[in-house]
Amino acid sequence: MTDTYESPALLRQYLDFHYRSGETSYLPHHELPEGLTEYPQRCGEVTIEYSNRYQRALDLGCAVGGSSFTLATAFDEVVGIDFSDSFIDAATQLASTGTFRSSEVVYTPSSDHRKCRPHFRKGNACALPQDLGCFDAILMSNLLCRLPDPTACLEGLKALTQPGSILVFTTPCSWDEAFTPREKWLWPTLEGLHQTLDPWCETCDVFDIPFVLKDHDRRAQFTVAQASVWEVKA
Questions:
Q1: Which residues are 81's β-sheet partners?
Q2: Order of strands across the sheet that contains 201-216
Q3: Is the pLDDT score of 2 beyond 70?
Q4: What is the DSSP track for the chain?
Q5: Rounded to a whole number, what is the distance in angstroms from the first to the last CA of the chain?
Q6: What Cα–Cα distance (Å) separates residue 108 from each residue in 15, 70, 99, 182?
């Protein structure tokens, strides 16, 4: 699994998904309906919309950072964490120079005004560093069903939050033994989240977010992610 997430092909796929999905060239042979593009940015916007405070945000499983740059338009500090070296290297270069080149394509974050420059670091979502501090908002986009121990990850978020903090999870609920042992699946996903989070969080909202992820110019994956928003109890 680790080698897969370090492949040049996957890096290119995610760079396109995070920074080019709103362009007509993303799927040149078929025009996409409105509301399917720029998924990372939409996840960031959902997090901003539901947040109560805007000092610090964590983008956990940030990949190449598209949602992190959106969060940076509202939060004073944004930390992006991912397990992939190549993803973090690309996101870090985008944050420091404003561009990243992959073969003939140059990627750039949106030109929206940002309050801060996101900081990216490698990390394991199931065993997070102890020096992260507390966050006003935590976004986990399409990460939950790719973790070896999702419950351990969720329980670890307690130490990173305080009353009023917002948690946003988006997931295609596509549990797979290649990533998560069957006995650790949160299935059905929303019920699993309730079982783990209800003792210390309140549910704010549950809704769907559709998106398209390109495999190549003539093939793409259509997915409807389940989004849920939670607020840490007083």
A1: 60, 121
A2: 119-122, 77-82, 56-60, 137-141, 166-171, 219-232, 201-216
A3: no
A4: -TTGGG-HHHHHHHHHHHHTTTSTTSSTTSPPPTTSS-HHHHHHHHHHHH-S--SEEEEET-TTSHHHHHHTTT-SEEEEEES-HHHHHHHHHHHHHS-EEETTEEE-------SS--EEEE-BTTB--TT----SEEEEES-GGG-S-HHHHHHHGGGG--TT-EEEEEE-----TTTS-GGG--SSHHHHHHHHHTTTEEEEEEEEEEEEEEEETTEEEEEEEEEEEEEE--
A5: 38
A6: 10, 13, 5, 39
pLDDT digits (tens, 9 = 90+) for 153-198: 999 999 999 999 999 999 999 999 999 999 999 999 999 999 999 9
User: In sequence order, which residues have a C-beta less than 8 Å from that of residue 85 and are 6 or more positions away?
Assistant: 6, 122
pTM over 0.90: yes
Half-sphere exposure at residue 152, Cβ-oriented, CA atoms within 13 angstroms? 11
CA distance linking residue 225 with residue 190, whole number of Å:
12
CA distance 144 to 185: 9
Distance between CA atoms of residues 193 and 153, nearest Å: 11
How buried is residue 86: exposed, middle or buried, by Cβ count under 10 Å (0-12/13-18/19+)?
middle
User: Alpha-carbon distance 57 to 54, whole Å?
Assistant: 7
Please state which architecture CATH assigns to domain 4-232: 3-Layer(aba) Sandwich (3.40)
